[in-house]
């Protein structure tokens, strides 16, 4: 079995148009059927403000399927450690023999998560934007902006975070790395009201966005809720949305934002990302609609990014 460290993986895998196409194909394959994807196994570790998820999926025709363990321990920065981590085990699809251990420390999960956000925005956000609103200042708050540059042209980021020093650090890093103007918001409301494309990237357990703040032409990609205790959106947000999209319908109703909106939205009202990519469902119909994407992360994404990584490393 081959073992690849994070340094090697980073040299070969980045947020690119090629990787974006691979992720789009994975969502299409999920929609077409034949994919075997069990529910997420979630382990909550409250005494250490931590959690771990196990995800996997088999995609017909792929050489390997991935079994991914991802962990989030949100007090780690106080200890000088990253809050997110994990690894992927690539199993041979024909024999079940382990083919490779990808010791990526969560890097591949970070990449595929950012790519999913870009796909959702490409399908649902208005075409003409000048700025992106971001709630949160962590790693995904950075990677989402980088990935969005693959599908939209913009020159400004409007960010809100609870910790002033983290917001200032975010501003400095994003301006230096991407040449973007980063404007600091005093509230989440300011971000939502002032932008047509907003991404939420926090582990919040109480709503950050209220329905009263929504406006014509707004798209929200909610990335943070992937467990029962998490929530970034007021459930009434969904009552004002014209289009609601999820990565996997059953999953967003169990661990995503929609778990809190079951009395407002039915499963039949939710379009899956793969349906739009396969032209089996429409997304935004005009520039006045309000759209929301609830993305929880899927095993099919992990298998797709693991296969892509192995292809790039061994090319």
Automatic annotation (TrEMBL):
InterPro entries: NAD(P)-bd_dom_sf (IPR036291), ODC_Mu_crystall (IPR003462), ODC_N (IPR023401). It comes from the Bacteria. GO terms for cellular component: cytoplasm. Signal peptide: none annotated. Gene3D superfamilies: NAD(P)-binding Rossmann-like Domain, ornithine cyclodeaminase, domain 1. This is Cyclodeaminase.
């Amino acid at each position: 079995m081959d073992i690849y460290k994070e340094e090697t993986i980073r040299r070969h895998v980045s947020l690119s148009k090629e990787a974006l196409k691979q992720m789009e194909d994975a969502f299409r394959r999920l929609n077409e059927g034949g994919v075997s994807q069990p529910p997420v196994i979630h382990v909550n570790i409250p005494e250490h403000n931590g959690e771990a998820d196990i995800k996997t999926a088999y995609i017909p025709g792929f050489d390997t399927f991935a079994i991914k363990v991802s962990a989030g321990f949100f007090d780690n920065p106080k200890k000088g450690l990253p809050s997110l981590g994990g690894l992927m085990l690539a199993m041979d699809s024909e024999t079940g023999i382990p083919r490779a251990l990808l010791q990526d420390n969560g890097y591949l999960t970070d990449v595929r998560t950012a790519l999913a956000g870009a796909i959702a925005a490409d399908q649902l956000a208005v075409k003409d934007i000048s700025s992106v609103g971001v709630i949160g200042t962590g790693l995904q708050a950075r990677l989402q902006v980088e990935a969005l540059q693959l599908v939209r042209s913009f020159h400004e980021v409007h960010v809100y975070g609870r910790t002033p020093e983290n917001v200032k650090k975010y501003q400095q890093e994003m301006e230096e790395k991407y040449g973007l103007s980063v404007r600091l918001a005093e509230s989440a409301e300011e971000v939502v009201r002032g932008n047509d494309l907003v991404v939420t990237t926090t582990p919040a357990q109480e709503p950050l966005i209220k329905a009263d703040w929504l406006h014509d032409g707004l798209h929200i990609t909610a990335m943070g809720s992937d467990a029962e205790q998490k929530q970034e959106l007021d459930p009434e947000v969904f009552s004002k949305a014209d289009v609601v999209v999820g990565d996997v319908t059953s999953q967003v109703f169990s661990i995503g934002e929609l778990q809190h909106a079951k009395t407002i939205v039915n499963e039949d009202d939710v379009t899956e990302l793969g349906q739009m990519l396969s032209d089996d469902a429409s997304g935004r119909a005009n520039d006045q609609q309000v759209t929301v994407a609830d993305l929880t992360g899927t095993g099919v994404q992990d298998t797709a990014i693991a296969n892509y990584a192995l292809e790039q490393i061994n090319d």
